[in-house]
Design brief:
Blueprint (H helix, E strand, L loop, with lengths): L1 E2 L2 E3 L2 E3 L6 E6 L4 E7 L3 H18 L4 H17 L1 H12 L3 H25 L4 E4 L3 E9 L2 E5 L5 H14 L3 E5 L6 H13 L6 E3 L4 H10 L3 E7 L2 H11 L5 E5 L5 E4 L5 H13 L11 E5 H17 L18 H16 L3 E4 L3 E2 L10 E2 L2 E4 L6 H4 L6 E7 L2 H9 L3 E2 L1 E5 L3 H10 L4 E4 L14 E2 L2 E2 L4 H7 L1 E9 L1
The protein binds NADPH dihydro-nicotinamide-adenine-dinucleotide phosphate (NDP).
């Protein structure tokens, strides 16, 4: 069985312990490769490789760094079909989705930051006849990047690209649940001519490798995307060492639908914002809030459409809903469906595991699930389920919609459907979230600030925000 390798100092190598653990194919429920069970010592080795590489990479002309990253983007494009296959196999997501979204976005992440660094300028502050200040933005050193399993290569590259473009060395840990495409990327890095030690990819459990990244004193910056509890754990270790932290955490996002919306467009997009990637996107609108006048019409149409979604083999082009990522995660989602019932919720559609035939008979498939009749304060409406499960709630006034939307500890994104421009602006101003989509969902411009408020995170990714995060600002004051 294939053994995934760590990528340290430009070499593909086994973990120091020699130990591996199983990597599963969610659509078949079976093991198909082995993951290095790395430890602190592997991270330490990666730190040493980064320390060796940093003096060269950090002073390399930006144009040269950019050229290498552009070459890497080209190689992702060249290998896109193979990477999409690997992503679908490792994660359970429909191959079509990996081809249309995950891999193209991984490529554009690298391409975008390879270009952005060439346009990144720092500030100057003139004090009339007294002095002039200019700000230097310099690479910081070694960055730790920890990413989740839901959009594996997409989110992995979203972190490493700005960190590398800004001249840092990176030690990255993909989720142990979906390590494969990061492994493939390490081979492409060699081909692109990335100098040894500039990017190191260390695989293994979050509790060992992730913790080692948080603890290692030479890793000065941590960029993390994942669950809120894990984010809190990382912060508790890293903050006393004054590490720079960017935390992109969970969400419980409202999808707010007013009577005056474009119903057909709203319905089409709401199908995606509810169930794309089996609902395993931090930005999915898992709480659907509908104004009373169209509640029944929406419910009927939404349930009908949801029942038409095809659950099946991710490799089949006709599949809409693939497998969820792991057996543990499947059981967690099912336990939330049970909780919803205990809390008095009515299941309008779905709610069960799906057993397919043939090769997929042991796969982890779930029906897309719609629940109504629950109060906003119950656990089902407060906790992140991160699966193909949405709840419906109705509201009458704008104020009520706002209160429901803002009534959780999370604040990642909100979606708003209305034809009333003034209301759209008012709501956008007052929603407690880092991102507001009006009459659309997941429309992304990589230059915009990306991140959440409240328990959804600290800091912003994207565009120059990311380049600022991955550089140290130094003000130089010249007396005139
Ligand atoms: P986790 O928090 O479980 O894991 C995220 C990453 O952290 C993984 O690589 C994991 O490793 C690692 N990790 C686990 N424990 C530790 C630890 N103690 N120290 C350091 N690292 C650790 O999240 P999931 O992978 O389950 O991802 C789903 C979550 O991510 C959801 O809450 C979702 O909302 C959030 N998310 C947020 C996004 C955003 O932009 N705000 C985008 C996408 C997802 P391993 O898997 O090997 O345990």
């Amino acid at each position: 069985m294939e053994k995934i390798q760590n990528y340290i100092g430009g070499k593909l190598i086994p973990p120091i312990s020699g130990a591996y653990f199983d990597n599963y194919e969610p659509a078949k429920g079976k093991v198909y490769s082995q993951i290095p069970d790395s430890e602190y010592s592997d991270i330490d080795l990666a730190v040493k490789a980064s320390q060796k590489a940093f003096p060269i990479w950090s002073i390399m002309e930006k144009q040269k760094r950019s050229d290498i990253l552009l070459k890497l983007a080209d190689l992702i494009l060249k290998n896109a079909d193979q990477l999409a296959l690997e992503e679908s196999r490792d994660n359970g997501k429909p191959l079509k989705l990996a081809k249309q979204v995950d891999i193209p976005r991984a490529e554009s992440n690298i391409r975008f930051f390879a270009s952005a660094i060439l346009h990144f300028a720092s500030e100057s502050h003139s004090m009339e006849n007294t002095a002039i200040n200019y700000t230097l933005r310099q690479p910081i050193g070694i960055v730790g990047a920890i990413s989740p399993w839901n959009l594996p290569l997409y989110l992995f590259t979203w972190k490493i690209a700005p960190a590398l473009a800004a001249g840092n060395c990176v030690i990255a840990k993909p989720s142990e649940i979906t390590p494969y495409t990061a492994y493939s990327l390490s081979k492409l890095c060699k081909e692109a001519g990335l100098p040894d030690g500039v990017l190191n990819i260390v695989h293994g459990h979050g509790s060992k490798v992730g913790e080692a990244i948080s603890k290692h004193p030479e890793i000065k910056v941590i960029s993390f995307t994942g669950g809120t509890q894990t984010g809190a754990r990382i912060a508790s270790i890293a903050a006393p060492m004054f590490k720079k932290l960017s935390l992109e955490l969970g969400g419980k996002n409202p999808n707010i639908i007013f009577d005056d919306c474009d119903f057909d467009e709203m319905l089409k997009v709401t199908m995606r914002s509810s169930f794309a990637n089996q609902g395993q996107i931090c930005l999915c609108g898992s709480r659907i809030l509908i104004q009373k006048g169209i509640y029944e019409a929406f419910k009927k149409a939404f349930v009908e459409r949801t029942k038409q979604l095809r659950i099946g083999d991710p490799m089949n082009e006709k599949t809409n809903i693939g497998a969820v990522v792991s057996e543990i995660h499947m059981n967690k989602i099912l336990s939330y469906v049970e909780l919803a019932k205990e809390e008095g919720g009515k299941i309008l559609s779905g709610g069960n595991r799906v057993i397919l035939e043939g090769e997929n008979k042991n796969g982890w498939f779930l029906e897309p699930t719609i629940i109504e009749g629950l109060d906003n304060s119950c656990r089902t409406n407060q906790e992140e389920i991160f699966g193909p499960v949405v709840t419906l709630q109705s509201f009458e006034t704008e104020a009520e919609a706002l209160s429901l939307a803002n009534g959780t500890e999370y604040g990642l994104s909100s979606t708003l459907w209305t034809s009333d421009l003034k209301r759209a602006h008012r709501m956008a101003q007052n929603l407690h979230s880092g991102i507001v989509w009006i009459n659309c969902w997941l429309v992304r411009d990589l230059r915009t600030p990306f991140g959440g408020t409240k328990n959804s995170g600290v800091g912003r990714e994207g565009g120059f925000e990311a380049l600022q995060f991955f550089t140290e600002a130094k003000n130089v004051c010249i007396y005139l």
